[in-house]
Amino acid sequence: MSYVFPAPPVSAVAVAGTSDRLPVRRIFCVGRNYAAHAREMGKDPDRDPPFFFTKPADAVVNSGETVAYPPETENFHYEAELVVVIGTGGRDITEADALGHVWGYAVGNDLTRRDLQLAARDKGRPWDFGKAFDRSAVIGPVHPVSEVGHPGKGAIRLTVNGETRQDADLSELIWAVPEIISILSRSIALAPGDLIMTGTPAGVGPLVPGDVCVVSIEGLGEIRTEIGPRV
User: Fold this and answer.
1) How much is the pLDDT for 180?
2) pTM above 0.90, yes or no
3) 3-class state of residue 37 by DSSP
4) Which UniProt keywords apply (predicted)?
């Protein structure tokens, strides 16, 4: 057997402190997982089951790269997020066992074409064009659990050109990491290389060409993204 055209390269993210790369299989994202962010998006925070959307694996951008201002939007937003990296797959994972499936954690930035997302939401349509576009998932180096443990609390912050825009604590997540993994695995079998972006705090806002966006999470370092000219 041969492919009719070359297979795409494997999408991968860095592993902290090494030259290794971690292959990315899929990217799942949790919507509105901080109460204050849910309110700023016009929704009431609650304990209904969390909902998920996805980004393609090749949307990954490494820290330090420039991201061009994307097409078809006039409201391009940042979203600071804790990223969970699955190392052991499974289906119907219990909350008690969930953390045993985690390989590590990273800092992420869920870049969003907010105007397209909200227009789709208001019409009951999928969010893909607002969330799953090219180079929309900035993912920092992954820190193995063996080195950082399982961060259940700690500052998560985002600055634009040195000005703080998001400032919260991981303990404020509505749905904690074990719950997220367990609920997601009931519907979709998880596998090594799956990433889960766990939601963003309040304070989301726009980026423009020339902006420098820095996201930091206590114990996991920071990622830096410069916004380039519109494509």
Assistant:
1) 97
2) yes
3) helix
4) Hydrolase, Metal-binding
